[in-house]
Amino acid sequence: MDYSLLWLDWKRKSSLPAYTKRIVGMPATRQGKAALRELLNGLKAMGADSELCSGSDGCPSIRLNECPGGGEKAELHRSGEGLALIGSGRGLIYGVFYLLRHLALGEDYPEWESSPAYPIRMLDHWDNADGSIERGYSGRSFFFRSGRPVCTARTRDYARLLASCGLNGCCINNVNVHGSALKLLTGSYKRELKRIAVCLEEYGVALWLSVSFSAPMELGGLATADPLDPEVRQWWQDTSRQLFSAIPNLAGFLVKADSEGRPGPHSYGRSHAEGANMLAEAVSPFGGKILWRCFVYNCTQDWRDTETDRAKAQRDAFAPLDGQFRENVFLQIKNGPVDFQIREPVSPLLGELEHTSSILEFQIAQEYTGQQKHVCYLLPMFREVLDQQMGRRADRDLVAERISAVCAVSNTGDDPNWTGHDLAAANLFGFGLLSWDPSAEPEAIAREWSILTFGGDPEVTDTVTDILLRSRSVYEKYTVPLGIGWMCVPGTHYGPSPEGYEYDRWGTYHRATHREIGVERGPGGTGFTEQYSPALAGMYASKETCPEELLLFFHRLPFDYRMKDGRTLLQRIYDDHFEGVEEARAMSDAWDRLEDRLDPAVFARVRARFREQLRSAAEWRDVVNSWLYRLTLIPDEKGRKLYL
Amino acid sequence: MDYSLLWLDWKRKSSLPAYTKRIVGMPATRQGKAALRELLNGLKAMGADSELCSGSDGCPSIRLNECPGGGEKAELHRSGEGLALIGSGRGLIYGVFYLLRHLALGEDYPEWESSPAYPIRMLDHWDNADGSIERGYSGRSFFFRSGRPVCTARTRDYARLLASCGLNGCCINNVNVHGSALKLLTGSYKRELKRIAVCLEEYGVALWLSVSFSAPMELGGLATADPLDPEVRQWWQDTSRQLFSAIPNLAGFLVKADSEGRPGPHSYGRSHAEGANMLAEAVSPFGGKILWRCFVYNCTQDWRDTETDRAKAQRDAFAPLDGQFRENVFLQIKNGPVDFQIREPVSPLLGELEHTSSILEFQIAQEYTGQQKHVCYLLPMFREVLDQQMGRRADRDLVAERISAVCAVSNTGDDPNWTGHDLAAANLFGFGLLSWDPSAEPEAIAREWSILTFGGDPEVTDTVTDILLRSRSVYEKYTVPLGIGWMCVPGTHYGPSPEGYEYDRWGTYHRATHREIGVERGPGGTGFTEQYSPALAGMYASKETCPEELLLFFHRLPFDYRMKDGRTLLQRIYDDHFEGVEEARAMSDAWDRLEDRLDPAVFARVRARFREQLRSAAEWRDVVNSWLYRLTLIPDEKGRKLYL
Predict the structure, then answer these.
(1) Closest CB from A513, A626, A644 relative to B630
(2) Closest Cα partner for A94 from A581, A578, A585, A433?
(3) DSSP assignment, residue B177?
(4) Which residues pair with B122 in a beta bridge?
(5) Chain A to chain B, count of Cβ pairs less than 8 Å apart?
(6) How far apart (Å, rounded) are the C-alpha atoms in residues B350 and B359?
(7) pTM listed for this prediction
(8) How far is CA A587 from the centre of its chain?
(9) Cβ-based burial of A346 (10 A; exposed 0-12, middle 13-18, buried ≥19)
(10) pLDDT tens for residues B13-54?
(11) What is the bridge-based pairing of β-strands B62-66 and B82-87?
């Protein structure tokens, strides 16, 4: 096997509760059987001498009780000196993994009664048919090779990893559908797709496909993809029928339409709702769903145009359509209004939809957050988003309560450690746990992940947890100041280029002069703040009440603006950048001190990443600070080195 | 035929001198026969009713008198009522093309007695084996297709074009040798190469090849490419013997070594002289020559490092080696010390070499000068370089007199018009004429090229000549100010990005603050000016005597620096950019007025390029000016629009 099993690589335990010796229960379904197998194998790996018994004979045991139906609920109760696990086949899978994880954490009688918060909890892979991965930082695709989907032993282990942290779906191909990925919709690759779907299904993981809105033209030879055209509708219905009948575990389609050059209903004068509903109708007979991305903006903006504000685009495009979508359409909304920056306010669209289902999209692929060369534990950011009160209604007003589903752009590839940076696997694991329970604590998740991954040495657990929890703030400090975004190198999005996007077409500007920086988004500016509820709008619109970490997202400010602690805006940015590098060094040093406590290969791999992080962090610090120094000619108050 | 013949597409003349009726002479060599054929075909195309006669019978005639030997001298004399053309086979070719061109210009008795100024006058093609062209803006390669060299009818027409303007060599593959181009040295493609060489030879055009310094490892399986290693030397000798004996018209090798990541002698602690001499020794028995590029600099500079000055690198690397090179080595020196920017001073290395042959390298591929989307007639720039007095000795001190050979990076590809922009062919033609006679006048060249290309309509000739002569200054005005260079988009080198190279590794910085811009290269700065003779050094070192168009190449200056005409530096830059766009528009309008006088396809093609030039020029203007405005917050004195 040329890859690790991450947190499923169960460590040997010196002692286990007596009930682990005896497993009772004969699940009937394929998923129930998988649960049983995971339990036996997991306990064996931990050193238990478990036996599958037809009855408990009064001895302590783990009793698996499979219920009919396909629900995801799992119940794990103490039963005498043993445990009882109750659920459907899928519920048993979640329960078994919960049990194994908590035994590994050292709990004697883990009890749990839980249903997931959302029925759809999935990963979006941006894998291309040629095996490359858009914004992939962990090797090549394990779903595609040389233009074709492939199903290997790794597919099954991938499904196990997903199920073990609560995920139940994945879209295996890039939302930018090109090359032979177009043909996934038609007969060409049905056999491979079915193989993958069946493999995933064993662990309750549904298969999703990204489709191109113009597929009726590209594949069907039609002259149009107009969603109101009867032939087009028929083509989608026929294609869906064939696909859903061939692939048992297909859940639906993900669509990026009228976005960044992708085809969509606007080409035919139709709305997003007309486009999405046409697809929804086609997949509806098979229980299929449509995930319709809201990442829509003008990507050929003239930088001279100060009226257009990209942050406003998604709410402007979709809020007026609320209520027009079929019930099996989910609007897929990125967490922030722009694009996965290290700091953004929550997307105002998340507060708008009252009659439309939505799926919140995070990105664990670290496109703008260090590309899995830098440690950046994203769970605290995700929690901020989920915990945001939108101020639109009295109850169920939190983002976590307003959404109907969650997904994340995956950070996986065929690297031996799956995620390039070993510590990036915490984002994968953590996203899973959060998708099941959005009130899960980032610190507890980090601690659990560390123990499962590196074993129970408290020194290791404490250090790794501490590194993870500090990492996002550290990354933010040495990169882009106070929510302003987009100071990365255009195209690659790695490394600093403060003016790189300034005169380009992407609508991402800071318009810095030697006196001021930022775009004013309050009522006196682009008016973006007005997209929020009055409470949020008021808070963001005022410099005094705007959270400081978002100050430059919302406001254009002079460099001598006084922060709450009395420092100037400029000095705050200088300080953050110097501190960020020092803090990165401290994280790296802390890791180095674990050398004798970790597997040498893992230790060395992460150490090498830290070396690159420190190099890159110093580059960020020096470029951003020197750029500001050249602009302002105001030196650092502490006399630290800036470069002319 | 899917391409034009450019200036060799002879136009019908209403009258021709009587002597064109009768051609006398039977050249014996392949080249002499080609000359005769060109003469007959050319005259026929112009409408002459020419006959090849065994004698003149006392009637006016053109008498071809082929002399033995391989010299390039051509003599064209009036002889009674006719003309006598005297030369070797190669001389006859040059004489015939001269005669045809001048008949086309309307001269009755063109007389000429001329030898070329340099024995090597060549084009360097940056064509890759896969058919792509590095920095190519005119389609794909016509020398390579799918990894192999190809010889087609176009190869012969290419040779005709070269000979017709005086060129006698071409290096067909990229100096960055990779892919299957590596194998050009060994047996793999000998048949194709021989075919190309034979085809070129008919028109006196020699074949050159770019080679990789580490070929003994890449191809020979040796463990080293150390130039002092006996096995390495033997490998090069054997390889050269096989290659030169298989390819009759091979002139030698072009080498980019120890430059931008290419392998070279420095890897083995050897000098450029040791590296070049080893190759020179290997090709010497076959009359071969080595062209050794001096484009050597630190391409991983830390932008924080203000000591290193890329402009100094070439002189520092090569001047100390003067006299150490074998006589069949030519050091290939770019015209400026940096890299083909729209404005640079002459390379100081051109003033240094007293005991080493040099080949001056121009670039007619418009990498930094508009990529054949913008008109930019480069001959005035080339003349400035050739006419530069280096101040190193009493006689033969001009660059044109110090160099031993000339070459230019070619602007050709398989586009139907060869050069993408129809007007870019003037650079190809003009470089040829200048390589034969470095005192040729850019205006006369432009006029001649226009008449040969578009016919004799004086309105067309005047307009085209005027556009060409203004074009370089116009391009310079709206792009990079006063010699500072490198404000283009990194990588592509097209379009503006004033800070694009600022924090990168290429040694190309302006270090602008809100008060000052530029790198000081005088004695108080990097000391680059000291690389020149005292006269030039003194002129460049002083802001007062430094030519204004080079002011920001040599000096760091405050934006309120007063130019000679009283304007501030900043206002001068603003003005240049506004004027440059207006002047580009005037050129475009002038072209539009030729609509009824030109072939509709040619007219439309050039008009489309002008549209793009105007769009791009406005972008350059707005980005550079707005960037300066944001830096300084000083408005344009004339109140023109700048963008915050």
Answers:
(1) A513
(2) A433
(3) -
(4) B169, B407
(5) 62
(6) 9
(7) 0.95
(8) 24
(9) buried
(10) 999 999 999 999 999 999 999 999 999 999 999 999 999 998
(11) parallel
